[in-house]
């Protein structure tokens, strides 16, 4: 019994080492510029260990992307949940998404390589699972309270999510002086236009 527990911990440590090494390399150089040999060397494991946990490089990338998306989703949820007022929760969460997603080491994985490596449909499904649910819940609560007009929520979620993803991509190449603050202010104006 004890040996099984030790082996399970070792397997999990190996998997974490592979994800950590791949994440660093993908963030620094991009998915296409990183080979499996580099990843296993950085993780200090064998190629066999990699294939024990992941079918291929794309499968490993999927695990990295999932980690990054959940990390950003958690950061957004934490920023939103720090407020009692539903409107402030929405705006704080949206602003935090822009701040979190503009970290260049996340941005390349989450917004540039994600759709390119996994394809739009799979990337979108992962993005929805990680963050769209929170946005939908916030907008539903606001619509039910009459803060925003009652309307179908899924299209609104996709419009806002797409706008924020595009803004995060734009911020990657925008001049650094005040671009994030200006983008957050523009987002605030856009969100206020939804209020009844």
From TrEMBL:
Task: Locate the DNA-binding region by residue range.
Answer: 35-54
Highest taxon of the source? Bacteria
Q: Which UniProt keywords apply?
A: DNA-binding, Transcription, Transcription regulation
Cite a single Pfam family from the UniProt record: TetR_N
Protein name according to UniProt: TetR/AcrR family transcriptional regulator
InterPro entries listed in its UniProt record: Homeodomain-like_sf, HTH-type_TetR-like_transc_reg, HTH_TetR, Rv0078-like_C
Q: Transcription: present as a keyword of the record?
A: yes
According to the entry, every stretch annotated as the HTH tetR-type domain falls at 12-72
């Amino acid at each position: 019994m004890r040996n099984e527990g030790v082996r399970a911990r070792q397997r999990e440590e190996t998997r974490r080492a592979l994800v950590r090494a791949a994440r660093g390399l993908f963030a620094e150089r991009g998915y296409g510029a990183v080979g499996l040999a580099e990843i296993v060397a950085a993780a200090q494991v064998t190629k066999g260990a990699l294939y024990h946990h992941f079918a291929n490089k794309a499968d490993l990338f999927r695990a990295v992307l999932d980690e990054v998306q959940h990390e950003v989703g958690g950061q957004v949820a934490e920023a939103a949940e720090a407020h009692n007022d539903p409107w402030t929760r929405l705006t704080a969460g949206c602003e935090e998404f822009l701040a979190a997603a503009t970290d260049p080491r996340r941005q390349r994985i989450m917004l540039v390589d994600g759709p390119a490596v996994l394809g739009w449909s799979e990337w979108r499904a992962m993005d929805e699972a990680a963050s769209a649910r929170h946005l939908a819940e916030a907008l539903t609560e606001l619509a039910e309270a009459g803060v925003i007009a009652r309307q179908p929520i899924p299209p609104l979620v996709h419009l806002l999510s797409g706008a924020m993803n595009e803004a995060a991509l734009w911020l990657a190449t925008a001049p650094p002086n005040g671009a994030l603050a200006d983008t957050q202010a523009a987002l605030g104006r856009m969100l206020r236009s939804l209020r009844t």
